Here is the input.
Amino acid sequence: MKTTDIPISDHKPAISLRHVCLGYEGEWVLHNVTLDIPDGVFLPLVGPNGGGKTTLLRALLGLMPLGGGEMLFACRDTRLGYVPQQKTVDPLFPIPILDMVMMVFYRDWGWLRFARRARRAQALAALATVGLEGVAHKNYRELSGGMKQKALIARALASGADILVLDEPTSELDAPSERDIVAQLLRLNQEQGKTILIACHGMQLALSMAERVCLVEHGRAAIVNVSEAQRYTNIEPDISAAGCSHDG
Here is the structure.
């Protein structure tokens, strides 16, 4: 099962990047990136390790400043939900899954009783979406790797996110769990219209999910079809970094 064959050009942009530069300690990782990320599409990010996939996702989430250029969202109140790898969360997390999902609300609502009642229902609905309603009261540490990843997806869904951002969420999972997570994400895209941005460890996973990918390598990022991404793996970097300035 893959995403629909609707041309990406037929989708309005959810996020637009214009001449964006990103880097660390004076070294550009991505430079002069101009890119439209369509609304409602499933878009794998592919490229070599260190090529900039995670850097791009961090910028989209607002976790690092732009070194240049601008990033525009189609809607002012667009919500992005971050889904980390399950291995980044303490495997001995000693709380029920439901409480972990509800953590997404604490900053805004605290522990007020009237708020918790509504948010609890919202969290349970998110768990049901990924098939975990039956284990909502189990401790996180009791879950398999695939179920932990689903719980993290549920937490992002509970926040009301329009766009899900995932950084190699299946890299530590066995093949059946990987297929299950991919199926869940594709269903969210197709049935709920969620925009899914997912950094992939390898091209094979991307092939199983979509016809087009965002190729991120050598300081560049562009949406191409999968066959193009497979061919253009040795593009020389554009060292001119036009539009970028370390002073800006």
About this structure: Residues 1-9, 233-242 have pLDDT under 50 and may be disordered. Residues 60 and 71 are 8 Å apart (CA to CA). The helical segments are 53-60, 97-102, 106-109, 113-129, 145-158, 175-192, 203-207, 226-231. The longest strand covers residues 13-24.
